[in-house]
Every structure is written in C-alpha cells, then in structure tokens.
Amino acid sequence: MNDKQSMTTHDSLKAVSYKLFQVISNELGVNTAYVTQRGPTSMKIISSFNKDHYIIPEGYVVDYDSAYCRLIIQSDQEAMHIKNLGSFTLTKDMEATEELEVKGFLGVTLRDFYGEVFGTLCVMDKEEKDFSDKDIHFLKQMAEVLSYVIHLDSTLADIELLSVPIIPIKKGLAILSLQGNINEARSQKIMEDTLHYAADKGIHSFVIDLSQLMLLENQFPDVLKNLVSGLNVMGVQVMMTGLPPWLVQMPGVSEHLSQLKTEYVADIESALNKIGYKLEK
C-alpha cells in the first residue's frame, strides 16, 4: 500500500460500494459483499454488506498470510471462486473459514486507477455456490468501477492535504478556517503550517473558525487541542468562532472544548472586534 492510500479515508469508495453491494448481492445471489484494503501485513474490511446473516463486519482485520485475499491477488486470473471453503484444499484449514462458517466464495483483485493493487472485492454465502465465468466477469466490472472511485478519494486527499486556509488580516493577525474532515495526515500539516506561519509572520492573534468543520467518524480532532496549546506557548492569543450547535451537543465535545485555553465568540467579525480590529465599509 502506498503512502497516498494510507492517508486516504476512502469516504467516496465506502459510499459508492454501499450502493453497489445490493446490486452485487442480487445479481450473484449471495448474502455478503465486501471491499478489503491491503496493508503492509494485513487485510482490512473497509466496507461491507450483509443481507440476511451478519458475517463480515466493517473494520475486520486478518493477517495477510491468513486471508483469502492473498490467494486472489496471487492468482494469475486475479480471481478466486470456491464452491465450498470448508472442503477446498487451500482454505479448509484457515482460521477464517472456521470462524466465519461460510461456504460459497468469489473474490477479485481490486486495483487503483494506476494499476496498483488496492485490495479485493469479494462475496460470500453460507451455502455452496457455483460461480460462472459470467459471474466473475460481472464482479471484475464492479471492481473496475470502484478503481475510479479510489482515484477520486486519492485526489481529494491530496487537495485536503494541501489545504490549510490561513487568511492574513493585518500584521500580527490571521484567521485559520478549519473546513471539512480532518484526518491524521491533514492534522499534522495543519499543525506544522499554522505554527510555522505564526512564527514567520510574527502573529500575536489567531482566529480559528470552525463553522465549516466536519467530524471524521464522529471523532473530535486532537489537532485543535495541540494547536491551541502550541500557539499559547508561542504567546499567541487564540479565539474560536463559528461553533456549530451540532458539534457542541455531541457527547464529549463540550469537555474537549472547555479544556482549550481560548475564548469563544459567535463569528469572525465579533472576534476581530474583540481584538480591536474594526471592519469598515
């Protein structure tokens, strides 16, 4: 897995795969469909669908050497179809076979836009399944669709990583507008760029606007606490604006916010007025 893939949250891939899973399940007559991502040593389920029986949960991780996906990726056909996992030589003794209690299986290699292996697209069922060449071709077509979506997610990740919108107002004063989702990689860039900017430009007051913030998987971004602490240590006054009501009402968020050494005001104009900067026509 390359660095770009590891930084990407694959929000678009998850959204599109959820829509495709129902189609795949109906077309192939299977209970479960899922997408895996290959890591350095393991395979992780990043999206899944279970029609009647709950077999594969999202977030499920298995060592690469113990995963069906290894057999798919290493196959010359970039596909593997098995009527009964419990009786097939290469899979009958696998830990996953006993744990999941499934029989019918079909999986194809999932590549990104540039042809690099991303992971796999797989289906499975509690019952034995005879998959035809037509079925394999269909699942490969679905994997091709998802490869374009992986590329979209990578492109969006690049844009997010490059985007740290700091707006200079006047000497010593700037605004940081935190927009969209903030993942680990983007948090690091926001932290580094903001602290470097404050030092290079001699900033004494930073207004951090949260009105366009979105939470990734409902996790409050630790970068806010670290960023405010870092700016405080540098002698920079920090004010926060635009706190959305939905954010404040989320469990644990108020506690996080109360721990920050900063002042909260309704909007950017109010923050600038408090600092002593007047907006005039």
From TrEMBL:
Residues 163-248 form the STAS domain. InterPro entries: Bact_StressResp_Reg (IPR051932), GAF (IPR003018), GAF-like_dom_sf (IPR029016), STAS_dom (IPR002645), STAS_dom_sf (IPR036513). This is STAS domain-containing protein. It holds the Pfam family GAF.
